[in-house]
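so im writing up the methods section and need the ACOT9 thioesterase record in one place, dumping it here so i stop losing it
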Amino acid sequence: SACRLCIMKKFPSVLVRTLTSGTSGSPGLPDMSEVRSKLRDIVGASTNWRDHVQAMQERKALHTLLAKRQEDLPPRRMKDSYLEVILPLGSQPEIREKYLNVHNSVRFGRILEDLDSLGVLICYTHTKQEMQPRSPLSIVTALVDKINLCQKIIHPDCDIKFTGSVSWVGKTSMEVKMHMLQLHDGDYSPVLDATFVMVARDPENKRPAFVNPLIPESPEEEEIFKQGELNKMRRIDFNTASLLKMAPTAEERNIVHDIFLNTLDTRQEGEGTVSFQSRKLPPNSVWMEDAKLKALQICHPEERNIFNRIFGGFLMRKAFELGWATACSYGGSRPFIVSVDDIMFQKPVEVGSLLLLSGQVCYTENNYIQVRVHSEVYNANTREHHTTNVFHFTFISENEVPQVVPKTYG
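--- predicted struct ---
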């Protein structure tokens, strides 16, 4: 079994130190494939692609189970949604192949997929209705707020443990904090912390739906909840200050102007005849337009989620792999992922779509490479392109990398 889902009494972090086991015993201990099949059971999704339309039709009847107001739902505690999953790479070598990369460490794209599935299951655990095996909610990933790594290498032959719980709740959205640890010399040491935001929608995934409120039970939990509220405000501020809505600040204007002056070709005759069109690349630099990689993915039914759209974890894995390849070809040496930021899921991706991914080095400093991956779908019937996601990955390269230099204002 690839992963075992269980609830333990020994917790590894500030978030989970405040929790105590919400369930006595752990019947069944499902593995990660069973976690995904459990998600299918919760929403009544089909296992056969040919039955998916029928399965989604049957969900319509669950509309009657939706709460009319959030106040009608029983409040929950952080420990009510706490889950723990074991990924036994050390004790069960037969599952390693799927997680292994060519450098003999763990494929980070696979970890993103597991975090996405676990995050959704944690939210279904938070919103579970007693005596009701099927959930009327469609819970989907809205964004990955942040993933920070504190280990460069994830070992392919040591057991991994994921833990997590709901850390903040709005009216229709939930923040989930997850932690990943790896077993070394009998102890689990931290590898990464992740913060995801999930949204709840009606059974047909058309309109927002209310979720159970969250009650913090201790000063530590109050702090975690307050941080969730601050995260939400920061995202609102960030969107308000978007360059598409607001002019650059004085500091930003100076940075842009300095880059512009540094790339002007002043070798022409006389200061007055310098052409704004004539640009030169500073030493040990690369034009931003020359630091791109593109990829195309055909979205097959195999990659669908429980709502018969393309699984968010699959999109993250593909975007990460293109981001890694972009950083690798740019820096000329092996890059290591340091953090993942601001992955926005703007539109669902339908099965059968053509998914176009574009990786772009957008900032460099010493050994660090920031890569932005833009993903859009192309509908061959309507000939329309739609942005579905924007991903931001920060890598550290083994060697110092050239400076990336923008050529245009955009």
